[in-house]
Amino acid sequence: MKRNCVCGKPIPHNQQLCASCLSYYGVNAGGWPLWLTEWLKNYQAELDSERNHQHLAIEVDGTIRKPARPFKLNGCRTETHLYEDRENH
What we know:
The chain is of the alpha+beta class. The protein has helices at 19-25, 34-52, 79-82, and strands at 3-4, 10-11, 57-58, 64-65. It has one domain (3-65). It has 3 helices and 4 strands, in the order ββααββα.
């Protein structure tokens, strides 16, 4: 998921601010201005909402349907187990 800093620069998903904004506002979030903490809170809520609803698909007629569940593999997949009885099959 793409994430942007308050200044508009792209940043990694596990950071809140870019390096230049961190040097300007400081590392301690307690010293940040109120507008910045509110912006970060709202931005994180928007990203969370987008992430939580990305599994939904909107159909042409306007109804929202959940896609089919992804195929889940079950069983052992260790390297030694794969070739144990190879000559028997």
